[in-house]
Amino acid sequence: MLRARPFATRLKLLMALAAASGGSAFLPAPAAAAVVLAPHRAIYDLTLVRASEKRQLEAVRGRILYDFSGSPCEGYALQFRQVSELNSGAGRVSLSDLRASTWEDGAAQHFRFSSENFLDEKSLEKVDGDAERKADGITVKLSKPQKKTFSLDAALAFPAEHMRRIIEAAVEGKSILEFPVYDGSETGEKTFNTLTVIGREIAPGEKPAKADAAAGNAELAKLRRWPVTISYFERTANSDSGEQTPTYALSFELYENGVSRALSLDYGDFVVAGEMSQFDLRQPASCNSEAGKAAAPKDAAGGEAAPAK
Q1: Residue extents of the structural domains in the chain
Q2: How far is CA 263 from the centre of its chain?
Q3: Longest pairwise C-alpha distance within the chain
Q4: 287 to each of 37, 38, 76, 203, how far by Cα in Å?
Q5: Cis (ω within 30 of 0) for the bond into 6?
Q6: What is the pTM of this model?
Q7: Does the bond joining 180 to the residue before it have cis omega, within 30 degrees of 0?
Q8: Residue range 295-308, pLDDT digits in tens
Q9: Contact between residue 166 and residue 172 where contact means Cβ atoms under 8 Å apart
């Protein structure tokens, strides 16, 4: 899921980026049938739901561009951009722009990531790296913000594996899921513990309470979906020594093909809603075709994510 300062969302968006099974020798093998994610492109319009008095935030206006492609055998690529205009009142307006690209192989062995974060059109930070899972752990090699190599626990899930396991748990009727994740966010060195709460299954054909671009799609209407909330806790030396407050929480309705709608991003002192305004569901390509191949990221994503006028 990457966070722009002062506000953005993580790449897990969860990203309805997810790999199909194939599994990993270092993660529990799925009991359910393989989860296959649908290539798609979605735009979410962002608005402020509420803010605490200490935040002094009067309005938020923005967009998320989410472009997911690939196949289980060739890996999945995500092009992501979030542009947010934050109005603190008295003419104080700031513009946050997070651009990111990721690629993950279908077996959750290899993860590449690139991101750049802008504030008021000035670049604040760039992150570029590569993570590879081996028998003795995960090796991360960063080229930005500075060259660095370090090791992580093999139990950490990459973003695609994270989402796949959530869908598998939902299909199996589970309501709680806990495990650590690594997504290359911020400086590329942080890891997070996650707590996922999965709500009651929403049957195919059951219309959403609020109409959006997903609600009008005939193919999505044939699928099950679940209300999901994921809380992220920064991993530290004291992570297991008592109750922690989440860094932030993300709620959404998750379809069994990986599409997400009705986003809610809770940053503690303010909450932002993301309504899907545009949606393009693509047919999954054959693993043997060139169209089924997802290219690894070369640089942070661009795209039409500017706030609507």
Answers
A1: 40-292
A2: 11
A3: 57
A4: 13, 13, 12, 30
A5: yes
A6: 0.82
A7: no
A8: 556 555 555 666 65
A9: no
